Amino acid sequence: MRVAVLLSGGRHPVSGAAVVPRLEAQAIRLAAGLGPSIGPSIGLHAGPDASALAEALGQGLGHVEHIDLPATADPVPALAARLAASRPDLVLAGRRGHGGPESGLVPYALAEALDLPLIPDVVAVAFGEEAGTLRLDQSLGRGALRRVVVRLPVMVTIHPDAPPPRPFAYGQARRGRIEAIPLASVAANEAGPALEERPYRRRPKIVKGAPAGGSAAERLKAATGEAGSAAKGRLLVEPDPEDAAREILAYLRRIGVLAPPRPLDFGGR
Amino acid sequence: MTRLRRDPRAERAAMQVDAGGGETRRPRYDRSVRRTPGGRSRRDPRAERAGRRVAGGPRLRFDLCRAVRIEGPMPSEAGHRPAPEADAPTILVLEDPAFLVAVVPDMPGGRLSVHDRQLLGAARALAGRDGGVALLALGPCEGAGPAGADRLVRLDDAEDYDPAARAARIAAALASLGARHVLFPESLEGGDLARRVAVRMGEPLFSDAEVVAASGLIRPARGRSVEQRAAPGLLATVAADAVAEYAGRPREARALAREAASVATRPAAILSARRIPADPATVPLALAEFVVSVGNGISDLDSFRQLVAALRATPGASRVLCDAGVMPRQSQVGASGTVLAATCYVALGISGAPQHLQGVAGCEHVVAVNTDLHAAMIERAGLAIVQDAQAVMPALLRLLAREAAGQGTVS
User: Fold this and answer.
1) What is the least distance, in Å, from the CA of B253 to any CA of chain A?
2) B300 contacts in A (CB within 8 Å)?
3) pLDDT tens digit sequence for B157-171
4) At the fourth CATH level, which superfamily is domain B100-255?
5) Domain ranges (residues) in chain B
6) Residue with more model confidence, B258 or B68
7) pTM for this structure?
8) CATH architecture entry for B290-404
9) Which of B388, B396, B390 is nearest to B309 (CA)?
């Protein structure tokens, strides 16, 4: 089984140095966690800068293919052509590549171009019971998971809740090699919406429960919890404990955090 | 406030007594006759004070926050908190919208989440006065009108997990709707759906917008060092907690007729999908959806643990119990513990110190059970019960056990 990991041109948020983005390092670890039977995974990077690729080798990649592409070019055709030639069974990517427009569209565009199914936000990868299948645990947020069994080949994006990346290994980074892939033609980035750039400005936090266009007094009320649920809240003074229990359960069911008393029967047992 | 003008002559005439005799007799008046009630009646401070007295309890207590004058003693029976009487707002009907802004919410469990309502607020900002907001709901949807939707398109949701087919159905529905803008939430599911739809339709996607206005969308880029601004295009995703919810009059949410588009999809590569719910006992408190918390008003921690297990909630505690060592430190809720992002918070025997309330500030629904009517937690709660939590917990356990045995009634 061949595994490819898509690498983007990450920048350290403080120093600005070229780094492997954390999600992609986690993807390398997930691929390595599949065991020694799959062989070393291949990194694939399309971009002008190859300085962080040695670090990706140190995270556990066997070798990295680098397509030299101008920063303004669209990486999808070049990556799709390379992946179509090498036909990996599993393609891993971060949720959102760094360095480009950072819209997170590249894995989806590649999956469409290669006609692969895409499973997003995966935190664990294992082989399925059947040969040629993979069992993926997908994060649904708040600790919930969805266990998906897919037939290979498949494209997968990684969620930050995946296990942390392995420590950098210097010897591995020295042993691995970076291969430059010649490029047939450069496709210019499609003219998207005209973007105007400015220094980032923090926006004021919206106060939950405050109406849009309300006065400062209303915002203060919402911030201190006097508006919203408290204002139209229900107050029971010294009720019978049984009545209180019934009220609490009815309230919890109305807001949907507690399942109804008897689950609906869907026919099966 | 205007008082009636006094007329002293008429008052005197009303008090005059006809004592008999001729005109030589001097007029006689009965001063004990009460004057006609006009204007404000006289205050009775002692009766007011007695009316503010809180019944029950060994200590003399007064409810001084009551502004209205009470004639009798305060009722100790169950009752609603006096709410401002608002007449039902009329529904805003938009007959012929100039254009449509479509919204595709997540709707976890068939309800609009906070993020979904913020998305509708963003769509309302884009639609302005002339445009209409159409909500594309997979499955049934309640409360779309008050959240700001003018039209409602209901699509049938497939039972099994097939995101590609779902995106194809959404794309087909969007193509037949002909919306000018389409907004998705930048959440796990919504962001995935938006990107699939964008690739399928071949349209650019403006992701993670933090400012949504008809004049332009703004998103952070390159590690929040710059922000990018563009005129609103067809597809955009909106970040969480960036745009305020719609707060105007409720809209109509008229159901739109829709022709069932048959979408050809390739055979699914997904062989099976199974949802594994989070284990509430082990999920970190900051991620928990439903937290039941215990405070100093409770000493019976065994029934608290049983209750938490029966409700399938995550246990929390106040600082006092964590300091005393009866609850683990990682279960502490508040400024020095965990700040919650839960949907519902149940506070048992917690009065609600300001530091504790900071941890609860993000919770949408709060239930409080406390013996103190004047506790801050009672003030904060959506359902506040002034009762001993030690007595309510066994009652809750009994009720849950009865329901589990199949004798329960839906109240």
Assistant:
1) 20
2) none
3) 777 788 888 899 899
4) HUPs (3.40.50.620)
5) 100-255, 290-404
6) B258
7) 0.77
8) 3-Layer(aba) Sandwich (3.40)
9) B396
